[in-house]
Predict the structure of Spore coat protein.
Amino acid sequence: MNMLPITAKELEYIADSLSNEDLLIKQCTAGALSCTNPQISQVLMHQAQVHQSQYQALLGCLQQHQSLAPTQPQG
């Protein structure tokens, strides 16, 4: 598979997405732990796992492109 380097704009989008997924993981987990309804708590924990999976997918995307990243600052 022939990959092109990630553009600066794409990198910004991925960084924002990672930040958003991290926040959603924390919110879902906190909600699940503070919830007294077991069914709602279960749904929130499932959603935390979904967001964790999406976070890992984004991180994997960055790692796949790491070898294409410049080693020196671009001018």
Summary: Residues 18-63 form one domain. DSSP finds two helices and no strands in the chain. The chain has a mean pLDDT of 89. The radius of gyration is 17 Å.
